[in-house]
Amino acid sequence: MSDFKKYVIIVSGGTGSRMNSATPKQFLELNKVPLLMHTIRAFNASDIHIVLVQNDTHADIWASLCTKHQFDVPHSLVSGGKTRFHSVQNGLRFIVENEADLGSVLIAVHDGARPFVSKKIIEHSFQEVIDKKAVVPAIESRDSLRIISDGGINKALKREKVRLVQTPQTFFANILYDAYASDYNAEFTDDASVVEKSGYPIHLIEGDIRNIKITYPIDIAIAESWMNN
């Protein structure tokens, strides 16, 4: 691991629309601290260089929050794009501008709204990617699943054949950069789908049921309950 330089691109461009809040969800507080700060702190170890990609319109808010909470975890700020895809592209360009040899760089991409990512998953992802090249944490579904066809017909899926994908999704930098050189496609829902489209297989590792993405108001209540117990 010492021969590789590690980065994480934390994508944080949420608007809070599904939170019914005027405050972008990444700035909502968990135990009186913005959830984005919890996320960044999770990666503040093991010589991981943190690249935070966010909307330029949030720059003043973030600066003010960092001052208020005396948040001094080192991180580089990069302007976000019109979609998550374009935001990751911007983060990648920043890294490429600062690294001459992408073959010795490992990059994780993580959702800013997943503050409970564990040290175990982070370290395991960076360990596994050295051999696997493209690593994604995933968990089994506890619910029954159905798929809807274009004609509106739905049918059951075998639950044991389905996995729920999480982040961080981790790759060799050159593989991720080459994949993101492609044009945007609405079918790209995450980094794994972009890399897979470029021809690389995706390898799954065990995720964590606590590694939730804060999306709805109930998620804030659940998160605070976990933190206080």
TrEMBL record:
Signal peptide range: none
Entry keywords, A to Z = Isoprene biosynthesis, Nucleotidyltransferase, Transferase
Site (Transition state stabilizer) at: 18, 25
Keyword Nucleotidyltransferase included in the entry's annotation:
yes
Q: Looking at the record's lineage, which domain of life comes first?
A: Bacteria
Pfam families tied to this protein = IspD
Enzyme Commission no: 2.7.7.60
The record, for InterPro entries, names: IspD (IPR001228), IspD/TarI (IPR034683), IspD/TarI_cytidylyltransf_bact (IPR050088), Nucleotide-diphossugar_trans (IPR029044)
What catalytic activity does the UniProt entry give for this protein? 2-C-methyl-D-erythritol 4-phosphate + CTP + H(+) = 4-CDP-2-C-methyl-D-erythritol + diphosphate
| Protein's pathway | Isoprenoid biosynthesis; isopentenyl diphosphate biosynthesis via DXP pathway; isopentenyl diphosphate from 1-deoxy-D-xylulose 5-phosphate: step 2/6
Q: Which residues does the UniProt site feature Positions MEP for the nucleophilic attack point to?
A: 159, 213
Q: Which GO terms describe its molecular function?
A: 2-C-methyl-D-erythritol 4-phosphate cytidylyltransferase activity
Q: Which SUPFAM superfamilies match?
A: Nucleotide-diphospho-sugar transferases (SSF53448)
Which HAMAP family does this chain map to? Answer: IspD (MF_00108)
Give the function comment from the record: Catalyzes the formation of 4-diphosphocytidyl-2-C-methyl-D-erythritol from CTP and 2-C-methyl-D-erythritol 4-phosphate (MEP).
Family membership: Belongs to the IspD/TarI cytidylyltransferase family. IspD subfamily.
List the protein's name: 2-C-methyl-D-erythritol 4-phosphate cytidylyltransferase
- Look up and give the organism this protein is from: Albibacterium profundi
The gene name reads ispD
